[in-house]
Design goal:
Structural class: alpha/beta
Oligomer: single chain
Distance between the termini: 47 Å
Number of strands: 11
Shape: globular
Helix content: 40-55%
Strand order of the largest sheet: 2-1-3-10-4-11
Number of helices: 14
């Protein structure tokens, strides 16, 4: 079996192989939310207990389920383990779509291109992305940083096959980077802010003029059809929280710091690079999703071309 074939299978076989018990009937009146460490707005809502208050008039309770990154989160969403996904990088829904997942785009955060970057050690002999040719680079599979690396390499006249990818979780990626096992690490906030403030590093390139980095909230299609009233409450809460985080950066950082295990200044740096501008998803605004799908297909990481606009969109 070729390396390309193994890569495709490893990315797409995850959804149907997820644990079947997750399909068990959920408790009535419970909204199950999946989130990850970079899920800022829903983390704020969770800490404050705001969604529980907002949904109480509908008789809906909330349960929270943490995931290491976006792909396993959407796997759980697809098999019925959770009902709603916190924001995931723009690449993740593309892989889910390729795997036939029954997911609905619920909301989107406007672009935050500087919130992910290619990082090298401060003393590394690399002055441009082109200098990474033939080098081993740590990244998280199917994350926004995966597309950033593909797009940055293309801009530098290279292909993804010109580097050696090391697919690692954010925690393992940082460990490999700091011990020198990889030449560079491609990551996103708050991991990016953490390594910037705690280690001698340089940003070789970020997403500006390369990758928009829009984060998407998704719901299982069955839940979106059955509970539009619940999703409307969540949408309004997300918009209000996004406005508060941007208008109150210090207060937001102090609230998130102990949850993320980071100091408040690191959190504030991370938040400064995210838009947190929550808006509905419009079909005509999915151009970046199509570019992502085409890029992954072109690199042999998707088995077929996708129409990125052929997805259900939530409406009030």
């Amino acid at each position: 079996m070729t390396t390309q074939r193994r890569t495709i299978l490893s990315l797409l076989a995850l959804l149907p192989l997820a644990a079947l018990p997750a399909r068990a009937q959920k408790p009535a009146g419970t909204l199950r939310i999946g989130y990850q460490k970079s899920s800022t707005l829903l983390t704020v809502l969770k800490v404050r207990g705001q969604l529980e208050q907002d949904l109480a008039p509908l008789g809906v309770k909330v349960s929270w389920h943490e995931f290491s990154s976006g792909l396993p989160l959407l796997e759980a969403l697809n098999v019925g383990g959770v009902d709603l996904s916190a924001d995931v990088a723009d690449t993740v829904p593309v892989f889910a779509q390729a795997a036939g997942a029954q997911l609905t785009y619920f909301a989107q955060e406007s672009p935050s291109p500087s919130a992910q970057a290619i990082v090298v050690r401060a003393d590394a002999p690399f002055n441009s992305v082109a200098d990474l040719k033939g080098k081993k680079i740590a990244l998280t599979k199917a994350a926004g940083s995966h597309y950033l690396l593909i797009a940055a390499l293309e801009k530098a006249g290279l292909h993804f096959k010109d580097i050696e990818p090391a697919y690692l979780t954010p925690a393992d990626g940082r460990a490999a980077f700091e011990r020198g096992s990889v030449a560079a690490w491609v990551t996103w906030d708050p991991y990016l802010a953490g390594v910037q403030r705690q280690s001698p590093v340089r940003i070789l390139a970020d997403g500006r003029n390369v990758a928009d980095y829009q984060r998407y909230y998704l719901a299982s299609t069955s839940y979106a059809l059955a509970h539009p009233d619940v999703l409307a409450v969540v949408f309004d809460a997300l918009r209000k929280t996004g406005t508060w985080v941007k208008q109150s950066p210090k207060e937001a950082a102090e609230l998130l710091a102990p949850v993320w295990g980071l100091d408040a200044k690191t959190v504030e740096l991370a938040n400064s690079r995210r838009s947190y501008d929550v808006r509905p998803v419009l079909k005509e605004a999915l151009g970046e999703q199509q570019r992502i799908a085409d890029a992954f297909f072109g690199e042999g990481l998707l088995p077929r071309k996708l129409d990125a606009t052929a997805v259900p969109l939530w409406r009030r």
